[in-house]
Amino acid sequence: MRQIDLRFLGLCAIGALFSGLLGFMIAAGNNVTFDGHERLAGPLASHSELSNLRTHSSNHEKMHDTPLHIAKNIPLPTITAKLEKDPVSGFNLNLETGNFTFAPALSGREHKDGMGHAHLYIDGQKIARLYGNWFHISEIPKGAKSLEITLNSNDHRPFFANNVVISSIIALENES
User: Fold this and answer.
1) Are 116 and 141 in contact (CB under 8 A)?
2) Most buried residue among 73, 82, 126, 140 by CB atoms closer than 10 A?
3) Three-state SS at 131
4) Model confidence pLDDT, tens digit, residues 71-119
5) What share of the chain is helix, strand, coil (3-state, %, to 5)?
6) CA–CA separation, 174 vs 148, rounded Å?
7) Structural domain for 13, as ranges
8) Does 63 share its domain with 146?
9) Residue 95 lies in a domain
10) pLDDT for 11-62, tens place per residue?
């Protein structure tokens, strides 16, 4: 009798384990994560996926639209972006910054002068957060007109100077 009970408990444990794994697989297949962020499918998300993410109502997203004006006594951050075709696939984006330090460990934390990260937009749709001077873009959608890279504070607010966002814009001419 005792041997049957142990087998039954063992089968129940195995069933629970596989049920949990199946649940995680279903969640991953539907782009559900457990860290509060949605995952984009593929190298670039579809327009509807980006729109859904952009309209998501949260304090984090609202910070993206709240400018952070640089005080007059602080050196003005600068950015210049260059896009080159990668010899293997896609494109390489190179960022040159001045008076600015990429601080990935501080992302989501309080503002510190001259520190933060960059946001990459293609035709006004946010594609990625950048934590360094180089970024590989797997694919640029056909018909895309421009890339814009903004400098952002740790708390995600875009840096502004003279009422203009501090950014670099690259016009695209049949890059894809």
Assistant:
1) no
2) 140
3) coil
4) 888 899 999 999 999 999 999 999 999 999 999 999 999 999 999 999 9
5) 25, 30, 45
6) 16
7) 1-30
8) yes
9) yes
10) 777 877 767 666 656 655 554 444 444 333 334 444 444 444 444 335 555 5
